[in-house]
């Protein structure tokens, strides 16, 4: 028993020493952290079939296992279950090798081969010990296996990590996720979760290294106070072992780069998507609080008219900051609104009161046929008077609960809302004007 204990301690010591010397193993402040140098080497020789759509996809291209090229590099990052289930065999002896022994070792892809019958092997050479290893495909055909998303267990794709070291070095990012992590162990994988990072926090990348097999890029950032935290993210998803739809699960979104961080350029692109709203005339559909040019809150009455001057996406949120000029006052105001519909209990009529389509109507109410400027004060207050047109009643009171014919000359617009002061508005069929109002 004593001998076994000594062997375990020695194994942990060897792993710890290896981790400290490995440039891919990086830690947040407070745990041992390795300074990462950018690698100029690009070992990827895989066939590239996808056309890049943006900056990230140019640096991080998904490579299907079917298209792996010799020289692609991976690191063995076993999960707890992988410590029991052995993945690789020693090519010389054919004996399965403990994942603990191979932990943090770099495997270089050497192609695949059929060794007779139903046996297909995926071959690797280990950079660390110079030995050859193989993974035996658990299906009859490599072609059948490679089209799936399973890949080779335990292997984190270093092509993404190397690209990330170059791409994210010293970059400024903005946070998006609701939780991040801090290392707690010197040589192990211990961490704690932190949930007090506000979305949109500006951070700077201080180190990039290897994360996990599923999320191979570990990005360590620091906020303006110097506090460090990290997120393990998938970018190209090469050999991630996960299907695309699995990344859409809420807690998994945080482990994609776009779910964890935002590039400054992304915010600029988001802001440009709202350019079509700049210059539009709009009016409010209910009274709402805006911020004036002195930064003070001010209440804008219902049917207040504005021209939109600017729209800027708010980092880390689905809101935009809209700058508007009052058409009557000429003063400048700002308002945070969203174009994302969602249910928010307690909001007006159970809808999201800051949703653009709920808050504003496009155009000017005075341009509506039948609406007179001299009636606008009453209309804004929600008052209908004899002589108002149907258009003015609708603008003042909204759509009626029902319409009913009284006789050949009169019809009614009935309002049944508990907050509605008017029970019924009597309209002249010929003139389409209010004859009388019943409260």
Your description of this structure?
With 439 residues, this protein is of the alpha+beta class. It has eleven helices and 25 strands. The N terminus is likely disordered.
Could you tell me the mean pLDDT? 83
What is the helical fraction, as a range of percent? Answer: 10-25%
Largest sheet: 7 strands, antiparallel
SSE class: alpha+beta
Strand content: 25-35%
SS summary, helix count = 11
**What is the count of β-strands?**
25
Query: What low-confidence regions span 5 or more consecutive residues with pLDDT below 50?
Result: 1-20, 33-53, 343-351
Q: What's the arrangement of strands in the largest beta sheet?
A: 3-2-6-5-4-1-7
**Shape summary:** elongated
**How many angstroms separate the termini?**
92 Å
Rg from C-alpha positions? 32 Å
Reconstruct the topology from this structure.
Blueprint: H1 2-21, H2 55-59, E1 73-76, E2 88-90, E3 96-97, H3 99-102, E4 106-114, E5 120-126, E6 132-136, H4 142-146, E7 155-157, H5 158-167, E8 172-175, E9 180-183, E10 191-194, E11 202-210, E12 217-222, E13 228-233, H6 250-253, H7 257-260, E14 261-262, H8 264-272, E15 281-284, E16 288-292, E17 297-300, E18 305-313, E19 319-326, E20 332-338, H9 356-359, E21 360-362, H10 376-381, H11 390-397, E22 402-405, E23 410-414, E24 424-428, E25 434-438
Antiparallel strand pairs: 1-4, 1-7, 2-3, 2-6, 4-5, 5-6, 8-11, 8-14, 9-10, 11-12, 12-13, 15-18, 15-21, 16-17, 16-20, 18-19, 19-20, 22-23, 23-24, 24-25
